[in-house]
Amino acid sequence: xxxxxxxxxxxxxxxxxxxxxxxxxxxxxxxxxxxxxxxxxxxxxxxxxxxxxxxxxxxxxxxxxxxxxxxxxxxxxxxxxxxxxxxxxxxxxxxxxxxxxxxxxxxxxxxxxxxxxxxxxxxxxxxxxxxxxxxxxxxxxxxxxxxxxxxxxxxxxxxxxxxxxxxxxxxxxxxxxxxxxxxxxxxxxxxxxxxxxxxxxxxxxxxxxxxxxxxxxxxxxxxxxxxxxxxxxxxxxx
Amino acid sequence: xxxxxxxxxxxxxxxxxxxxxxxxxxxxxxxxxxxxxxxxxxxxxxxxxxxxxxxxxxxxxxxxxxxxxxxxxxxxxxxxxxxxxxxxxxxxxxxxxxxxxxxxxxxxxxxxxxxxxxxxxxxxxxxxxxxxxxxxxxxxxxxxxxxxxxxxxxxxxxxxxxxxxxxxxxxxxxxxxxxxxxxxxxxxxxxxxxxxxxxxxxxxxxxxxxxxxxxxxxxxxxxxxxxxxxxxxx
Lengths: 238, 234
What we know:
Chain B: InterPro entries: ABC_perm_TupB-like, MetI-like, MetI-like_sf. The complex is a heterodimer of chains A (238) and B (234). Chain A has 238 residues and is an alpha/beta fold. Chain A has helices spanning 46-54, 70-75, 91-101, 106-119, 135-147, 165-180, 192-198, 216-221, 226-233; strands at 8-17, 20-30, 35-39, 61-65, 77-80, 153-157, 184-188, 201-206, 209-215. The longest helix of chain A is centred in the C-terminal third of the chain and has 16 residues, at 165-180. The N and C termini of chain A lie far apart (44 Å).
């Protein structure tokens, strides 16, 4: 089922920092179901693109439109950062935190957090401080925290960067499960293999501009731009 | 050197024999300072967090003023509180001058900027870490401040302890507004000043050692209770 807060429409969106253009102008409509993978070289604007869509950045130019009222829009989406932001709390309390914000009692929230930790395969002492977790476990914590509100749209900024194959596989399993439950996922990655495994469609950014969009099969069969072709082939560009 | 040794011996004797006068002024010191610290923390901690989280005009000036107020001269504070609470002053009708309440008021004025400024620094760093997450999770302003205060509680405890440390060693202001009245407003610091004036350095030093021990004991107790420096804890 397509989320009622979609489609998200971006019209000539531009983001500048200290006078320098980091994204845009980009026009794009996010709709439908499945997983959209955002690809592109370092500095292409992938993170800025995701942050703009999630509302973490103030647009320098252009217009962005979700469907519905502001509170509903914000409550139905979640974001997983490339470097997980750990709170100074136990693993369980970190995962439960969004539900505490929603007004649930600590007991109920922790109970739900236990279930979510199990879903993402977080096999650690849940009452331990979150800062003792390994990189993969931290990312799973962040994923569990993002999924605990059952978001309709989930943004992930390179969630598997610096993770080993086992952790990557586990996170991909969780994301596939979320997609099957109807969560619309938009995720950036450098990993071409991961994009092939997960993507329903691909967005390719270069120098802050969205230069290619299309279904996974079409994109990988014959990318239309030299930048995308080079990226897929792993060519070194000057 | 002899005075210091004598002071240590006398301090030990006063403590071991549970000297009644010592117990009374020690308890009063604690009562005044702990009350002032609690009130100043209730004002200063949320104020520091609020300044850290919010962007408003004159924010920089507020921070500069707050930092400057950390060095507020206690004697001046004492004088101002004295004028306000004196019989002819605007709050003279309350009859608070030369009471522990007046001493608490003076201490609150002195240590609130310290607690607010240190907590502002601590919360600002935490806010930088949490900013994106709290915005992403759509936390309200009140929820953000509550979260930062809770998660930064150990750093904030340090802010309160800094306030406590400043207050318990304070003498100028509370001497003016308290009057150092025996069995009424005498505390450790004012008693030390009195005994020094009388030339009884041994007793003054003894009281000084008790004061230092008290400050260390309170800090130690709070650190043990809150579990700071325990492995893998924030």
